[in-house]
Amino acid sequence: MNFAPLRRAGVYVFLSLAAFISVFPFYWMAVGSTNQSVDIVRGKLGFGGNLLVNFQHLMSQVDLYRVFGNSFLIAIISTVLTLAISSLAGYGFEMFRSRIRERIFELLLLLLSIPFAALMVPLFVMISRAQLTNTFTAVILPGIASIFMIFYFRQATKAFPRELRDAARVDGLKEWQIFLYVYMPTMRSTYAAATIIVFMNAWNNYLWPLIVLQTPDNKTITLVISTLTAAYTPDYGVILLTTVLATAPTLIIFFVLQRQFVQGMLGAVK
Amino acid sequence: MAQTRLDRGEQFNGWAFVMPALVLLGLFMIYPIIWSLWMSFQVGRGANTSFGGLANIQRLANDALLIKALINTSIFFVIQVPIMIVLALLFAVALNDPTLKFRGLFRTALFLPCVTSLIAYSSLFKSMFSTDGIINQVLLTLHVIGTPIPWLTDPFWARIVIISAITWRWTGYNMIFYLAALQNVDKSIYEAARIDGIPAWARFTRITIPMLKPVILFTTILSTIGTLQLFDEVNNITQGGPANATMTLSMYIYNLSFRMMPSFGYSATVSWVIVVIVAVLSFIQFMIARDRRRAS
């Protein structure tokens, strides 16, 4: 007896079911943004005609342009700074080995497991003593030296051909020039993958902005969703429309850069 | 002499590249951790604090809410993490088969939840799991249940909602790690096993799992930390309720520090509980990994 076809069918059923469960909430979100709150809570599955009304309600409650501007500004600055600082460090740890720096790197790997929850209270006290509460600096600054990203870049740098560096040295390039003109262009798929991860994290960040950003004109889109959801009678049409708007940028980036993402995960060098 | 100067240059460059990161990490990670140790000995509320010795540590032992949060976190960890890792492994192995059709489509679909923000998907799940919401409707239509389940108002079901939500969001993320690792496994090992007539299940448990052990360990540590940080979902879906059934450590620290009159000293003590737990768990996980490596 050959069970192979049966097993193959089982795999397809299993994967299809899982894929359906994964994708369904996205459909739910899209449908919900066009429906009234009552219909959403009742589980209506078809598109409705309430999209514009939801949009008007949302616009009357929050300054959408400002909120989106805040989110983009924070995410873009965070991404650029995080990539710069972390790739410099990852490159430095891998290319210039010394016993002290290896010890430091091991210490960093230990610190990798410390959850943010353990840091947020002293960080908040620090930020408020520096009178930085309710500023974007307070949101961005503590996150830009990411141990995870330093580790990621160090791993990727292992695949960077040393001959390229040696050749550049022979040509008389200084170390920072080698980094800027040889390393960075060679590692662009690594940077692409890191960009996706860091941008998404910054865009989706919630707990720390919730703590440090206080006035409505400084809020980010995630904070707005949470405020809308926490309302005594939440208007799900408006909420789901906002989640569509908040998810759109990361969704677009994911679909455009999906190939780079997978390549970067594998540490491939083009 | 020339050699020494070159070395000195190398040293200088090495420090120059890592220094910006080290300064920032020192300022925003190491300093806060050490300082919170000092803070954890302070008692009092708001700005009115004084040195309290071991008072906060005594308070820990009698803190019913902290114990509740610890139990909840362990429930989430013990139930959710294994389910997620097994699912992610199964997906990865299935998708690693080059003869499978629609691989790209399946992979994209399964990874898609990872692009949503924790807050966005929490709001989605809250709306889907409302008492007369879509989930109850589907279950009622399929006659799985006779009466609607009070998902968000019953302690047991609220935990189920949180566990399902986290599993939905993170399984694809773990799967990507396993897929990447599987591509580095030498295909000829599987060929040899197949020729020797070793069944698929045994190939999975005897070849795939051992080969992926380092990645599995890595993702387990990530998930452990993830469980300890659990905040966005519970804060948005259940607000820690009902009856604190979904109160997590992070949420408890947040409530202590930022809801009502802050008690920073005691929240620093609770923060250190997390640090100790993480240290112990990481240690155990590494010891297990090392023992298995030695045994095999």
Automatic annotation (TrEMBL), chain A:
Short name of one Pfam family: BPD_transp_1
Alphabetical list of SUPFAM superfamilies matching this protein: MetI-like (SSF161098)
Protein keywords: Cell membrane, Membrane, Transmembrane, Transmembrane helix, Transport
Membrane topology: Multi-pass membrane protein
Localisation: Cell membrane
Record-linked CDD domains: TM_PBP2
Superkingdom of this protein's organism: Bacteria
Transmembrane segment boundaries: 12-30, 72-93, 105-127, 133-153, 178-203, 236-257
Every ABC transmembrane type-1 domain range: 68-257
PROSITE patterns xref list: ABC_TM1
Signal peptide: none
Family: Belongs to the binding-protein-dependent transport system permease family.
Protein name listed in UniProt: Lactose/L-arabinose transport system permease protein
Native source species: Kaistia dalseonensis
Automatic annotation (TrEMBL), chain B:
Location of the ABC transmembrane type-1 domain: 70-285
Family annotation (InterPro entries): ABC_transporter_permease, MetI-like, MetI-like_sf
Localization in the cell: Cell membrane
Keywords assigned: Cell membrane, Membrane, Transmembrane, Transmembrane helix, Transport
Membrane-protein topology: Multi-pass membrane protein
SUPFAM superfamilies: MetI-like
Mitochondrion is among the record's keywords: no
First-listed, main subcellular location of the protein, grouped into a coarse class: membrane
Keyword Transit peptide: no
Transmembrane segments: 12-34, 69-93, 105-124, 156-180, 211-231, 264-288
Entries under PANTHER family matching the protein: ABC TRANSPORTER PERMEASE PROTEIN, INNER MEMBRANE ABC TRANSPORTER PERMEASE PROTEIN YCJO
UniProt family annotation: Belongs to the binding-protein-dependent transport system permease family.
This protein's name: Lactose/L-arabinose transport system permease protein
Organism of origin: Kaistia dalseonensis
